Amino acid sequence: MKIDPNNPADLSAQIAAAIRDAIVSGKLIVGDRLPSEAELSEQFEVSRPTVREALKRLAAQSLIRTQRGAFGGAFVNRLSYADAHAQQITTSTLLLGMNDVSFDTACEARFAMERACARLAAERRAPDHLATMRAEITRQGQPGLSDEAFCASDVAFHRALVDAAGNPVLSYQLAGAVEAMQPLMNMITFTARSREAIIALHARIADAAEARDGADIEAALQELEGYTRELARSVFAARRTERGVE
Question: Residue 221: its pLDDT value, please?
């Protein structure tokens, strides 16, 4: 593992990347103990604080775990989908927030990926998934429910549909779509949308899942996408009018 001292990238980031690459390539496997801070410092020809910062980066990504004691040190961690789930959401949120991704682009991606789960969800849904979806629909219909709570329930409903597909890889990939893209879209459309219309579409999706009708889940998601896009267009048009832009 080597780094380029002439690379403008932060040295600790380079060290973390080198170790991460070694883990991904299989040179370091789950359970392997990393060299000590002193050994890494000598290997990369950097200070121990720089090595320590690199290890913190890896630990934040759940790629390594630290253990104290006589047999302690830093060890390659077994990364689980649950560990990676939060990172996927954070990364997707940052990408959408820091880059100029249009609403239509985010909406297209989010619903295209969710529709990929529709038939699997219809086939594999369990009573718990249906119960969660029904519970969120009931919650969404409660009088006085705040916009923030409604948005959170909206995310929980679609999370249950995705999880019903029973595929952890899909669930991981869709974490960013459902729990990052959807809240950002909700922030734009919540002032214009009809809760009744969304609840009706959610009920249709839940009914289709219970009936194991994947095609109808897809159709309902397609309708929800169209409704969401129309809401966004109306919101953006209203904003242009307020600013006096034709």
Answer: 96
Structure tokens at 183: 């809240």
Q: Which domain holds residue 25?
A: 11-76
Over residues 90-108, the pLDDT tens digits come to 777 676 666 677 888 888 8
Kindly indicate the confidence band of residue 178, based on its pLDDT and cuts at 50, 70 and 90.
Answer: confident
Helix (H, G, I), strand (E, B) or coil at 141: coil
- Same structural domain for residues 128 and 44? no
**Rounded-to-integer distance, Cα 69 and Cα 73, Å:** 8
Which residue in the block uniquely carries the two structure tokens 């919101």? 235
Does the CA dihedral 164-166-169-170 come out positive or negative?
Answer: negative
CA atoms within 13 A on the CB side of 1: 24
Burial of 163 (0-12, 13-18, 19+ CB in 10 A): buried
Same domain, 30 and 95: no
Question: How does pLDDT run across 126-163, given as a tens digit for each residue?
Answer: 999 999 999 999 999 999 999 889 989 998 999 999 99
At 38, which CATH number? 1.10.10.10
3-class SS of residue 33: strand
